[in-house]
Amino acid sequence: MKVLVLTMKARYDRFAPKDSAAYRAAELVFCDRDASEEEWLSAGGDAEVLFVTPVTWVRESLIARMPNLKMIHSEGVGFDRIDLEAARRRGVYVCNNAGCNAGPVAEQAVMLMTMLLHRTLWGHRMVLEGRQDEAVQTFEANVPLDLTSAKVGLVGFGAIGQATAERLRPNGTEVYYYARHRRDEETEKQLGVTYLPLEKLAARCDIISLHLPATAESTHLVDRDFLARMKPGAFLVNTARGAIIDDEALCEAIRSRHLAGAGLDAYDPEPVPADHPLVKLAHECPDRLILCPHQAGITVSSFRNVYRMLFEDLGRVMAGQRPNNIVNGL
Fold first, then answer.
1. Would you give the DSSP letter of residue 258?
2. Catalytic annotation on 276?
3. CATH number, domain containing residue 24
4. Are residues 241 and 282 in the same domain?
5. Would residue 129 show up in a list of annotated catalytic residues for this protein?
6. CA distance 143 to 136
7. Helix, strand or coil, per DSSP, at residue 11
8. How far is CA 230 from CA 32, 67, 151, 198, 199, in A?
9. I need a labelling partner for 269 at 20 to 30 A (CA). Which of 38, 81, 128, 240 fits?
């Protein structure tokens, strides 16, 4: 089975499961993800499967010109840049690797929470400027919260949200969550979390951490009204998707000091340009914004999971079976 892969071959050489029958049987054709659709089609327009990164656009124009296509598979969790409806009309499965990077992304979320609470960027700068004593005196005069004393609200409670709760629990953190579908009592007890409606969660928590996919429903969920409901001096963490946040509203909330700061690992658009409002604000408020390059899921364990799941689904399609984690309703 021919597979058009729009990412770097070196990753497959390193992480693909060499003992997988699907991997050994597949004809993998690699093409630069930044190439044009015409170049992709020239390399593998007759492919039956398409593997893409979560940030690669797969438009109807491409799907329509791949007559043998049976499955489009995101290499990660995100799939918002794939035309789901166009694929569904063609009978093409669209799949993702749900949960593949839950642990590493949760680690990043907790790291950002800790850095914000402990004012790590500010402390680093103060030490570099030879002002350590002043920094310590400032902390002593304004003792900050830590993960043991902070209330954390998780918006979205899938694999990553739950992995974040697992990592917060040893600290004794008071953790709340909101999701469209409340989890069962046993899951809540096991993870040590309490369900709250979104408005109450925003108002109660010292840190709000986002763990939602980018959908029409979640786009700009964090808007001026949401930010206004957050506690004065609270922090926002986003390791999900940039489109969830109204960036101008977030910039206003940080400039006004209604929010103490934010830690971000996702942006809209991506790659984020140097003149993006949040990038400019980071220069203006260098100690209150932590901007990461959407790196949380780029780890060894994540990639091992990614390629295991990719080739499991490829094997299922080769055998005439339905793949796992179908996201376009087929």
1. S
2. no
3. 3.40.50.720
4. yes
5. no
6. 10
7. helix
8. 42, 50, 12, 11, 9
9. 38
Which residues neighbour 172 within 8 Å (Cβ) at sequence distance 6 or greater?
Answer: 147, 148
48 included as an active-site residue = no
- Which member of 11, 270, 308, 312 is catalytic? 270
Instruction: Note the pTM of the prediction, 2 decimals.
Output: 0.91
**Nearest residue to 32 (alpha-carbon basis) of 14, 15, 56:** 56
Out of 73, 167, 204, 241, which one is annotated catalytic? 241
Pair (124, 272) in one structural domain:
yes
**How many independent structural domains does the chain possess?**
2
Annotated catalytic residue within 119, 204, 211, 294: 294
Range of the domain at 62: 2-100+299-318
115 and 89 belong to one structural domain: no
109 plus 209 within the same structural domain: yes
Q: What is the pLDDT along the chain (330 residues), one digit of tens a residue?
A: 999 999 999 999 999 999 999 999 999 999 999 999 999 999 999 999 999 999 899 999 999 999 999 999 999 998 989 999 999 999 999 999 999 999 999 999 999 999 999 999 999 999 999 999 999 999 999 999 999 999 999 999 999 999 999 999 999 999 999 999 999 999 999 999 999 999 999 999 999 999 998 888 999 999 999 999 999 999 999 999 999 999 999 999 999 999 999 999 999 999 999 999 999 999 999 999 999 999 999 999 999 999 999 999 999 999 999 999 999 999
Q: Are residues 108 and 96 in the same domain?
A: no
CA-closest candidate to residue 140, choices 110, 168, 119:
119
DSSP reduced 3-state for 36: coil
